[in-house]
Specification:
Elements lengths: L8 H8 L2 E5 L12 H13 L4 E4 L11 H15 L5 E4 L5 H14 L3 E4 L9 H13 L4 E6 L9 H8 L4 E6 L4 H11 L4 E3 L4 H9 L5 E5 L1 H5 L6 H10 L5 H7 L1 H17 L6 H10 L16 H17 L2
Parallel strand pairs: 1-2, 1-8, 2-3, 3-4, 4-5, 5-6, 6-7
Length: 324
């Protein structure tokens, strides 16, 4: 549970947004209800991997498919399972300002530490609109805010616009997930000294070493629970060390790269299959392979077919067998 004032949000973030943060999926039962027991078990599993915090109802959490009541229910479950001992962030993106603020108020009330928000898709056509949107949220919450820069929301903010967003009081940084390497690099170089910039993929760590910048948090991806087990949490170990300035090429090549190559293959395949949508169906099934509750994805997405599942399972098993 956040124990900081609005003016202390950046200090809190500097201290607590570190290492590997996860993105929780929202598991569904066969009759299309939220799998509460499965979600609770998933949270316990991810915590056992050593991940430092979690975000819920994000893109991989299929927030766009959830009713208001379902989103609030997920908030409640995640807050209960974190028990104030594990930092948690709530995704409050919406096209309705009233709904966004309602979600933020509920998250703050049940003990979330952080909010994440993206552009209010559909009617957002200028960077000024996005800046004003984030200001509206910031003015109505005491929690720190991370801005989510992603093409999924129909508006990609440039580095200078992201700098404007990060100058809003209690905005602590950006999850720069534009999939534009040049934009990620420019944002780190322009804004990274003043705010927390996180590109959620390992390539940025090696590029940062080359160009002279670092990021302190992997905020946030699904790689921990797709790649690791409690006994072999190599990805979490690698990220934790890298975030402390110890970027170990040999450790990455031996303990992470084989499974990351499988992830890159299937990520690209699934994104292409669904015309650019986040590969929630692939990640959900991969989670099931690792022992997590997943279930189906909701329309308009569709699950992988049985042949694809079999091939993915074979690829994951082979990669894991290569890692000591």
């Amino acid at each position: 549970m956040a124990e900081y004032t609005k003016t202390e949000a950046m200090d809190w973030a500097r201290e607590n947004l570190r290492g590997q943060w996860t993105t929780l999926m929202t598991p569904f039962t066969p009759d299309d209800e939220i799998d509460e027991d499965g979600l609770r078990a998933n949270i316990a599993h991810v915590r056992s991997l050593g991940s430092h915090g979690a975000g819920c109802t994000w893109g991989m959490g299929e927030f766009w498919s959830l009713t208001r009541e379902e989103r609030l229910s997920v908030y409640d479950i995640v807050a209960e399972e974190s028990a104030g001992e594990w930092p948690i962030g709530a995704h409050v993106s919406h096209t309705s300002a009233k709904s966004m603020l309602d979600l933020a108020k509920h998250a703050e009330g049940v003990g979330f530490d952080l909010l994440i928000v993206a552009a209010p898709y559909f009617v957002t056509n200028t960077e000024d609109q996005v800046v004003d949107w984030v200001k509206l949220l910031a003015e109505n919450t005491d929690l720190g805010i991370m801005y989510y820069n992603s093409p999924q929301f129909g508006a990609i903010m440039g580095a200078q616009a992201l700098q404007r967003i990060c100058r809003i009081p209690n905005v602590v940084g950006v999850k720069e997930a534009s999939f534009d390497p040049e934009l990620s690099i420019e944002t780190h170089q322009l804004v990274g000294r003043d705010a927390i910039i996180s590109t959620p993929d390992e390539w940025i760590l090696f590029k940062g070493r080359e160009l002279g910048f670092e990021q302190q948090v992997m905020f946030a991806n699904t790689s921990d629970w797709r790649f690791d087990t409690p006994e072999k949490n190599y990805y979490v170990q690698f990220i934790d060390r890298a975030m402390r300035g110890d970027l170990d090429d040999d450790f990455y090549a031996t303990h992470v790269k084989p499974i990351k190559q499988v992830s890159d293959k299937w990520w690209a395949y699934t994104v292409q299959k669904f015309g650019g949508a986040l590969p929630a169906s692939m990640c959900k099934y991969w989670g099931e392979l690792m022992g997590l509750a997943g279930g189906h994805v909701r329309p308009p997405l569709a699950d992988l077919d049985e042949e694809e599942k079999a091939e993915l399972g074979s690829d994951v098993e082979e990669a894991l067998s290569q890692m000591p």
